[in-house]
TrEMBL record:
Function as written in the Swiss-Prot or TrEMBL entry: Catalytic subunit of the oligosaccharyl transferase (OST) complex that catalyzes the initial transfer of a defined glycan (Glc(3)Man(9)GlcNAc(2) in eukaryotes) from the lipid carrier dolichol-pyrophosphate to an asparagine residue within an Asn-X-Ser/Thr consensus motif in nascent polypeptide chains, the first step in protein N-glycosylation. N-glycosylation occurs cotranslationally and the complex associates with the Sec61 complex at the channel-forming translocon complex that mediates protein translocation across the endoplasmic reticulum (ER).
Source organism: Spirodela intermedia
Spans annotated as Disordered: 494-547, 798-828
Reaction catalysis annotation: a di-trans,poly-cis-dolichyl diphosphooligosaccharide + L-asparaginyl-[protein] = N(4)-(oligosaccharide-(1->4)-N-acetyl-beta-D-glucosaminyl-(1->4)-N-acetyl-beta-D-glucosaminyl)-L-asparaginyl-[protein] + a di-trans,poly-cis-dolichyl diphosphate + H(+)
Stretches with biased composition (Polar residues): 494-508
Protein name in UniProt: dolichyl-diphosphooligosaccharide--protein glycotransferase
Domain Oligosaccharyl transferase STT3 N-terminal, residue spans: 62-464
């Protein structure tokens, strides 16, 4: 039994609710509700809170384990290359990254920044610290150092092999965060699962693919996530993290220019469409200022962060957004009349500043023949630019435009889900969803220009497809839930007759209930007016919530039950087909390392390990200071695996040097010997696939050598190597083609293999079968004839003694001509 306290006095009362004890302070106000009613209300509220928190906790735990499984899938699906073959570095560029990482772990970061590599681009050399993107190397080196500090003795090669699979899991989790900010948790989980298995990303992140894209795609997605997070929250903390993530992206890959142009495009789109807010300013301004300052710290970028045309769009949008922010600020502190005057002044000043900045930028880039754009950027803006002016860029296979089947191979069913996802982004359209749409549109264009940039399209396609699948599942499951509810309600109608029979028994209880309601109404009348107003407001709120729920139910798309079930089954089958295709792509299409080749025939599996056989021969049978000439594709592998000095490599920073090698390969034997001898070359390496049917050999690449060489040395002309516009190596080939060094080194003694000289790649018999080499000698040919190594013969010694005068009369002029030719530049 309780007693009301005296007015003006506070005291503590103990309440025992089950097993809990609580202290409450009461004033002298008269208690309105009886203790039992308060006990019930307290218990129900507390139970609702407990149930809500338990459900939320269960959801978070389930989401965590799903993300953990997605990370395991992303890592494990990329291990086919290790399981089927061995733990080895793939492709060509990764070998340079592996070599640089080895140097970093042995000598430290300071020696890495100052490292001058004299084994590449002889005799020029290369400053590694100032010409490489250090993000991948520093990441793998840090992982190796952390593992060894925990007494996990993994080799540098092992860490490099598994760096890409580890960061593919990180990229999947970053995709979840980005999509969650756009459309919620369900869409985020779906997008993360799709990205974990998409073949386009697998092609660049299998175990052993130690290239810049291995960590750059994660940095790209995470930068976009932090931008959207800042845009949604307006937090300066996330804006700072966004700038740091952009800095990591700049350190990792040259594709950072895509970020610094896409985000300004989105900011400008928001301003033009009237969606400017302070959150947009916080998301954009710190990224441009702090991100540009951090990007300038990367040696390979340096002042290019403010001097090249790829970055000018961000500065122009930065000026525009500051003008718009100033206008919005003035509107809040001035009257309408003064605001008009101030707006005209601010806009005039802003236009003047923009015009001045544009004039300065134009003056800066006018002196450059490319107007401040890099060759790769111009080839993206103008797909025909590289083929016209920079054939070395067009010669790379991954810089070619993709075919339609490649879209189906790389993104598979996502190509059909993307349109539905775009519609979902417009319902409703927000700043985040508009950014995703803009990201998709730009990435589709760039992927159509270069097949390599399918990698940038993959995250956008996964995000949009995840939104489409999530919305579809929500609509279909909601439709099934509504239909099942109707079936249950119709089944409960049969039990209404039993309830009518028991109605007579419940009438006394109803009268008691009405009497109770009357007593409650009497107590309500005695309550103060303030409490009545609060109760009315609560009732209005509940009514509005109920009406909103009813409207949302009416607006929700309710499909027939059969259609919903069939649609879910079709989506499940589509997902199963996607998984099967992704596993096939990971196991068969993208797992084979380029350095170890395999083929299947009626005899079984054949392994071609000719590349490592050739590099091992160079390492063990040549001097340490010997120079090896080859086409630039094999420069990184020769330096890393054979440890020999090369003339050119895959960096392709000096077009003239590459053109010199191309000219030597395109010239007759004697002129080629003179060019290589002037470069102090001892060995020449060529790749030949005519015996085993390997299509990526030097004969198929030869026309690019002619084009690149002819771009610098005009005496090399492509039509001289073509017969009626066709590239031939048979009896119809031109004499220039049959006499060039590349033809002779590739087909030397080839007729001895089968007696006919049949080329299995070109599917024809060679035109010149029997010939001898006068200035080169064959020193090694691999087991399957895929790699052939030739040595330059030393120059002949001069004959000592006097020559008879009778014989010197007719030969003196010829000897003088030969000596004069010898003094000329051998490259012309």
């Amino acid at each position: 039994m309780t007693f009301p306290p005296p007015s003006g006095i506070f005291f503590l009362r103990l309440h025992f609710y089950g097993s809990t004890l609580s202290l409450q302070a009461y004033s002298g106000v008269k208690l309105r509700d009886p203790p039992i009613a308060r006990f019930r209300r307290y218990g129900s509220e507390r139970g609702a809170k407990r149930s809500g928190s338990a459900e939320e906790c269960l959801r978070n735990i389930l989401c965590f384990f799903i993300l953990l499984l997605i990370g395991v899938i992303a890592f494990s699906i990329r291990l086919f290359s290790v399981i089927k073959y061995e733990s080895v570095i793939h492709e060509f560029d990764p070998y340079f990254n592996y070599r640089v990482t080895q140097f970093l772990t042995k000598n430290g970061i300071y020696d890495f920044w100052n490292w001058f590599d004299d084994r590449t681009w002889y005799p020029l050399g290369r400053v590694i610290g100032g010409t490489v993107y250090p993000g991948l190397t520093l990441t793998a080196g840090s992982m190796w150092w952390i593992l060894n500090s925990f007494n996990i003795p993994l080799s540098v090669e092992t860490v490099c092999v598994f760096t890409a699979p580890v960061f593919s899991a990180n990229a999947a989790w970053a995709t979840y965060l980005l999509t969650k900010e756009v459309k919620g948790t369900g869409a985020g989980l779906t997008a993360a699962l799709l990205l974990a298995m998409v073949p386009s990303y697998i092609s660049r992140s299998v175990a052993g693919s130690y290239d810049n894209e291995a960590v750059a795609i994660f940095a790209l997605i995470f930068t976009f996530y932090l931008y959207i997070k800042t845009l949604n929250t307006g937090s300066l903390f996330y804006a700072t993290l966004n700038a740091l993530s952009y800095f990591y992206m700049v350190c990792s890959w040259g594709g950072y220019t895509f970020i610094i142009n896409l985000i300004p495009m989105h900011a400008l789109l928001c301003i033009v469409t009237g969606r400017y807010s302070s959150r947009l300013y916080i998301a954009y301004a710190p990224l441009v200022v702090l991100g540009t300052l951090l990007a300038a710290l990367v040696p390979v970028v340096g002042f290019n962060a403010v001097m090249t045309s790829e970055h000018f769009a961000s500065f122009l949008v930065f000026i525009i957004i500051n003008v718009v922010a100033l206008v919005y600020y003035i509107r809040g502190i001035l009257s309408p009349k003064m605001f008009k005057v101030a707006t005209t002044l601010v806009v005039t000043l802003g236009i003047t500043v923009c015009v001045a900045v544009v004039a300065v930028l134009v003056a800066m880039v006018a002196s450059s023949p490319t107007k401040g754009w890099s060759g790769r950027s111009l080839s993206l803006l103008d797909p025909t630019y590289a083929s016209k002016y920079i054939p070395i860029i067009a010669s790379v296979s991954e810089h070619q435009p993709p075919t339609w089947p490649s879209y189906f191979t790389d993104i598979n069913v996502l190509a059909f889900l993307v349109p539905a996802g775009i519609i979902g982004c417009f319902l409703p359209l927000s700043d985040a969803s508009s950014f995703v749409i803009l990201y998709l549109v730009t990435s589709v264009y760039f992927s159509g220009v270069m097949v390599r940039l399918m990698l940038v399209l993959a995250p956008a396609a996964c995000i949009i497809s995840g939104i489409a699948l999530s919305d579809s599942f929500s609509i279909l499951t909601q439709s099934i839930k509504v239909h099942l509810g109707k079936l249950l309600s119709s089944a409960s109608v049969a039990g209404d007759s039993t309830s009518e029979n028991s109605a007579s028994q419940t009438e006394p209880k109803a009268t008691k209930h009405t009497s109770g309601e009357k007593s409650e109404e009497i107590t309500k009348e005695k309550q103060p007016k303030k409490n009545r107003k609060k109760e009315k407001e609560k009732e209005k709120g509940t009514v509005e919530k109920v009406s909103n729920k009813k409207q949302s139910e009416k607006r929700a798309l309710i499909l027939p039950l059969e259609v919903s079930v069939v649609a879910i089954l079709l989506i499940v089958l589509l997902g199963a087909f996607y998984v099967i295709h992704c596993v096939w792509a990971a196991a068969e299409a993208y797992s084979a390392p380029s350095i170890v080749l395999t083929s299947h025939s009626h005899d079984g599996l054949h392994v071609f390990d000719d590349f490592r056989e050739a590099y091992a021969w160079l390492r063990h049978n040549t001097e340490v200071d010997d120079k090896v000439a080859s086409w630039w594709d094999y420069g990184y592998q020769t330096t890393a695996m054979a440890n020999r000095t090369v003339i050119v490599d895959n960096n392709t920073w000096n077009n003239t040097h590459i053109a010199t090698v191309g000219t030597a390969m395109s010239s007759p034997e004697k002129q080629a010997w003179e060019i290589f001898n002037s470069l102090d070359v001892k060995y020449v390496l060529v790749v030949f696939g005519g015996l085993v049917g390997y299509p990526s050999d030097d004969i198929n690449k030869f026309l690019w050598m002619v084009r690149i060489g002819g771009g610098v040395f005009p005496h090399i002309k492509e039509p001289d190597y073509l017969r009626d516009g066709q590239y031939r190596i048979d009896s119809q080939a031109t004499q220039t083609m049959l006499n060039c060094l590349m033809y002779k080194l590739s087909y030397y003694r080839f007729v001895e293999t089968d007696g006919k000289g049949f080329d299995r790649v070109r599917r024809t018999e060679i035109g010149r079968k029997y010939f001898k080499l006068t200035h080169f000698e064959e020193v090694f040919t691999t087991h399957h004839w895929m790699v052939r190594i030739f040595k330059l013969k030393p120059p002949k010694n001069r004959i000592r003694g006097k020559v008879k005068k009778s014989k010197s009369g007719s030969k003196s002029n010829a000897a003088k001509k030969i000596e004069a030719k010898g003094r000329q530049n051998p490259w012309h």
